[in-house]
Amino acid sequence: MLGSFNFFGKEIGYYPLMALIGALTAGVFCFITAKKRGLNEVKMVFLLLFSAIGIFLGGHILFGITNIGIFGAFLNVKDFSQFLYVFTTIFGGQVFYGGLIGGIIAGSVYAKATRLNNFADYTDIAAAAIPLFHCFGRIGCFLGGCCYGIESEFGFTFEHALIEQANGVKRFPVQLLEAGFNLALFLVLWQLLRKNKLKNHLLSLYLIVYPIGRFCFEFLRGDEYRGFLFGLSTSQIISILLIIGTVAYELYRKFFKKNKPETEAREAE
Question: What confidence score (pLDDT) does residue 258 get?
Answer without folding.
Answer: 61
